Amino acid sequence: MSLREKIEALINKTEFTHSDREIFEEFRIALREGKIRAAEKDSQGRWQVNVWVKQGILLGFRMGKMVKMSKDTETFVFFDKETYPLRPVFLEDKIRIVPGGTTIRDGAYVAQNVVLMPPCYINVGAYVDEATMIDSHALVGSCAQIGKRVHVSAAAQIGGVLEPVNANPVIIEDECLIGGNAGIYEGVIVRKRAVIGSGVILTSSTPVFDLIKQKIYRSEGADKPLEIPEGAVVVQGSRAVKNEFGKEHGLSIYAPIIVKYRDEKTDASTRLEDYLR
User: Fold this and answer.
1) Distance between CA 14 and CA 147 in Å, rounded?
2) What is the pLDDT at residue 166?
3) If pLDDT is split at 50, 70 and 90, which confidence band does 277 have?
């Protein structure tokens, strides 16, 4: 049986044997090594969810028992499911982890030459590709997919989408820059080389206004999530509330705006990242 078939055979179980736990251990190691992932791009450039992988991650929560994860000699104590300990990391992994409180949950894939600034958190099922930087106080949520040479800036939140299992996770493609305090949630896809400005919030219900192409990008349900176009530069904006009450009080509501597409000037302003690695 394939690993997929083994996991699918366990999905509806409520009691687990030692052999079942060995299968889950094999699954978690495959996630850690990047051999399987929660979503993958097909030959047409479309991201497809691997439902069975997300089901396997949920299985681990059901299978696990709450245990004390910290050592008796430590004053900082914590408790979690035994099936999701901290990810083992070795010098040979070539992951740069700067001291100061960063945590990677096991079942997350972190590639070589990734830089993790303290403290950041990478949850189970996440995939962080080569030469990416996850900055201080940033979150990479469960099943989020982060491409190569991405910078997730300080305090940015890349939301996790574990349930429903057929829902697209948040995806950040290669060479994107995610600004400080930005938040990307609910299955939004950020195509390669896009720049998400500081403080920009993107969700499945957020319309994005493109000043250059004079278009509005929206999610059209689970089968067509909100996508930020390749190379787009998105900043915070607002639009006027046009009813009488809004006009009377000068109200406006938040609206992310694409103000340009990446050019040489944008590339020059982000090139500093190469020196930090």
Assistant:
1) 36
2) 87
3) low
pTM over 0.70: yes
Q: What percent of the chain has pLDDT over 90?
A: 87
Q: Are 97 and 116 in contact (CB under 8 A)?
A: yes
C-alpha span between 213 and 159 (Å, rounded): 28
Sequence spans of domains, the chain: 84-267
Please give the helix or strand (H or E) that residue 126 lies within, else none.
Answer: none
Look at domain 84-267 and name its CATH class: mainly beta
What is the rounded CA–CA span in Å between residue 153 and residue 103?
17
Alpha helices, DSSP H, located in 16-72: 18-32, 51-63
20-38 pLDDT, tens digit each: 999 999 999 999 999 999 9
- Indicate the pLDDT class of residue 270, thresholds 50, 70 and 90: low
What confidence tens digit (pLDDT) does each residue in 65-95 have? 999 988 888 888 999 999 999 999 999 999 9
SS3 of 187, please? Answer: coil
3-state secondary structure of 102: coil
How long a stretch of residues is the chain? 277
Phi-psi region of 70 (alpha: psi -120 to 50; beta: other; left: phi over 0): beta
Question: Is residue 76 within 8 Å of 94, Cβ to Cβ?
Answer: no
27: left (phi over 0), alpha (psi -120 to 50) or beta: alpha
Q: Report helix, strand or coil for 248.
A: helix
In the chain the first and final C-alpha atoms are separated, in Å, by: 42
Rounded distance, CA 146 to CA 50, Å? Answer: 16
Q: What is the dihedral of CA 89, 94, 100, 101, to 10 degrees?
A: -30
State whether residue 144 is helix, strand or coil.
coil
